[in-house]
Design brief:
The chain is α+β, with helices and mostly antiparallel strands. It binds 2-acetamido-2-deoxy-beta-D-glucopyranose (7 copies). Belongs to the protein kinase superfamily. Ser/Thr protein kinase family.
Amino acid sequence: MVLLQRNMKLRKQPPLSLSLVTFISITIFTTATTIISPGTTLYASNTNQSWPSPNNTFSLRFYPLQTTPSSFIAAVVHSGGAPIIWSAGNSAAVDFGGYLRLLPAGNLRLVNGSGATLWDSNTSNIGVTSATVLESGNFVLSNGTSTVWSSFENPTDTIVPSQSFNLGMVLRSGVYSFFLQKSGNLTLSWNNSVTYWDQGLNFSMSGVNLSSPVLGLKSEGILEISDPNLTSPVVVAYSSDYNEGGNNVLRVLKLGDDGNLRVYSYLKGSEVVNVNWVAVEDQCEVFGYCGNYGVCSYDSKSEPLCGCPSQNFEMVDPNDGRKGCQRKVKLEDCVGKVAMLQLDHAKFLTYPPVFVVNPEIFFIGISACSGNCLAASSCFASTSLADGTGWCYIKTSNFISGYRNPALPSTSFIKVCPPVAPNSTPSLENVVKKHWRIHGWVVALVLSSILGFLAFEGGLWLWCFRNIPRFGGFSAHYALLEYASGAPIHFSYKELQRSTKGFKEKLGDGGFGAVYKGTLANKTVVAVKQLEGIEQGDKQFRMEVSTISSTHHLNLVRLIGFCSEGRHRLLVYEFMKNGSLDNFLFVDDELQSGKLLDWDQRFNIALGAARGLTYLHEECRNCIVHCDIKPENILLDENYNAKVSDFGLAKLSSATNHRHRTLTSVRGTRGYLAPEWLANLPITSKSDVYSYGMVVLEIVSGRRNFEVSEETNRKKCSIWAYEEFEKGNIRGVIDKRLFCEEVKLEKVERLIMACFWCIQEQPSMRPTMSKVVQMLEGVVDIENPPPPKSITMGFSSAINTNVADSSAL
Ligand SMILES: *[C@@H]1O[C@H](CO)[C@@H](O)[C@H](O)[C@H]1NC(C)=O
Ligand SMILES: *[C@@H]1O[C@H](CO)[C@@H](O)[C@H](O)[C@H]1NC(C)=O
Ligand SMILES: *[C@@H]1O[C@H](CO)[C@@H](O)[C@H](O)[C@H]1NC(C)=O
Ligand SMILES: *[C@@H]1O[C@H](CO)[C@@H](O)[C@H](O)[C@H]1NC(C)=O
Ligand SMILES: *[C@@H]1O[C@H](CO)[C@@H](O)[C@H](O)[C@H]1NC(C)=O
Ligand SMILES: *[C@@H]1O[C@H](CO)[C@@H](O)[C@H](O)[C@H]1NC(C)=O
Ligand SMILES: *[C@@H]1O[C@H](CO)[C@@H](O)[C@H](O)[C@H]1NC(C)=O
């Protein structure tokens, strides 16, 4: 043995011929000297000492760590190129006084200079008689007849050819681990919990159940899985240098401390190492690569780079970004309200279970994704994928792994203590610093006043609610914050049953179901609509709800929340004190004359409804055709401002009838329906314009547009009104009940002319809603409208008969 060590010392860089001679001399000693008997010790202080394999391809030795000087790991290393293929205690490092000993009892033990046991093979008293490093690199303990322990069965972070990686084995590196699943799937996990890579087998014959899959690396560079139930092994991955270099190349599969799994090729006898396969192509997709709150990105050389979300954070270790970031001010120490920091083109990695599938994923818009997180005390961050799905991930555990890339469509939000201090781009940093120096005191002054204000506001807020017992509960608190944030609240059916006192007070019957009055826990009065005939699943429903709730306008009724539970589908709206417009237009004048709207109110309602519709059609992100404009769907708040309701609901009802519209399947209300509804022509926003025109006619005349009476010369109201208008008798059209008051004829004229343009039979003749608004506001001149009913259109007469005959609302 001593002789052998001398030999090895000489062999440092031997010429080929000498090396051959040495090989032969080693071979002579092989059988005798590579068997380690119990009681033998390997010392860290002597790095030249080793336990070699027969042909010295591999050896077990102490290996100095490059990162921390004078610490050593006991490792099986390859003699050429020196990749470490196994280490005692998975890279447990000892100091100069450390040693590895095969104890007389048969257990292998790694001991630190302090005398502390860092690792033990736990093989005492099972008859271990020797230890050997085999040519394959396997380090085995044997009882004389068979192997009782081996490094191949207890791998650390590497697999070499001829090694079998079985079910239940694991490669570890830091917090990362690699497993083979019963299904044959290969998985990479962070902290034994988050699986960030899961690759299934690509079977041509699917449905094969594996019994005991084994992963192996072939020396030519193939990763394959074999199993008794498979007729031949299945290739999982090819090394890109497949079969190159023959025996001169050693390939290993290694889990790096960066959480990635790679196949490396070592050219034997040289320092050349190549990566020829990698599991996670995008290093930033490795969960936790940049530590907690760390944000991964790429530098100009495409190397992954770790940073913090914003100036509200600092690195835990300024010299090592991978250790993650921490808040400069903890959320609980925050003065004033916590705010959401917005990170564009960034996501927080959304692997389960850190983002549990339910109930932490919502289908909502970007701003609601931020608001929802802000409102929930359990939420730390949220990510809106913004990839068209509308998915919002709410992060409730406090390990957050970020990824920022200009190519990412996602927008992320993270709770911070104000003031929000976004990262400046590197090129701007100096400029910013200069400004800070010059205007430092100004900024400080502004900051302190903001903080003071926040503190005051926070105090006020607490003071306001200190005596409201109902507000104490978490759910009420949550609901109020959520309401304020603009995200729709998800109610349970029970909650809504309670708030409506068992659906007691019916406000009305809309086209989609009955509406009930209710009071939420925070005393907000609401209108709860119990939808009927909604066949959509929960997902689809939530998507529509998120569209509706992201639509905010002064002249649109606001959606507060929803319930989707079993077959129950309910919508919760803000309550409108004065109900719907029809109650004021078509009243019995003797009994309820007090409810009559005066002229100014009527004009403002017409203008408000037009503005609401303009927003729906032209200004909001997901344009909505209402499809059911009528006085019943124009609600009035306490100041008689018009608010359009029930928008977005047409999409909720079964879309299947769109192709085969019949009079019975049409969702809209007859009398207000544009002719194209009945002629199976495309429905566009111009169809709403038509309905709106009919409503305007009713606002002016105070009678239903389809009413036929002696006063209208037995003609449809719209036709009669146009005839009166042509005769120059505008006064004749106006609601007679208004005559006792001042009616501004100029405004009436504008209203009526706009109305006639709106109810043109040809959709292309009708103005857009924004044009209508301009007409009413008087900022554009209105041309004389042609007669609404065009003789040239073939389908018109039939339709008008239908409409006129219909007595339905
Ligand atoms: C060791 O090397 C010799 C010569 O290269 C070879 O004949 C022998 O099979 C090798 N032994 C093992 C165990 O690989
Ligand atoms: C080993 O002992 C040294 C002091 O002798 C100590 O600094 C080091 O932390 C110990 N290593 C381990 C892994 O316990
Ligand atoms: C070695 O272990 C094997 C399996 O554990 C056992 O069958 C065999 O009897 C043992 N041999 C000796 C010499 O103890
Ligand atoms: C890792 O998991 C353990 C237990 O499963 C947990 O206590 C620990 O907090 C986790 N580490 C991090 C950084 O979350
Ligand atoms: C296996 O991996 C595939 C992705 O390659 C995944 O879709 C599948 O769910 C996984 N199967 C199991 C049992 O985890
Ligand atoms: C499976 O392998 C076949 C042939 O190699 C390939 O055409 C197919 O795209 C693969 N399927 C998947 C899901 O990778
Ligand atoms: C595989 O296992 C599943 C569940 O154990 C079983 O339902 C299925 O029939 C099995 N398939 C085959 C091909 O054996």
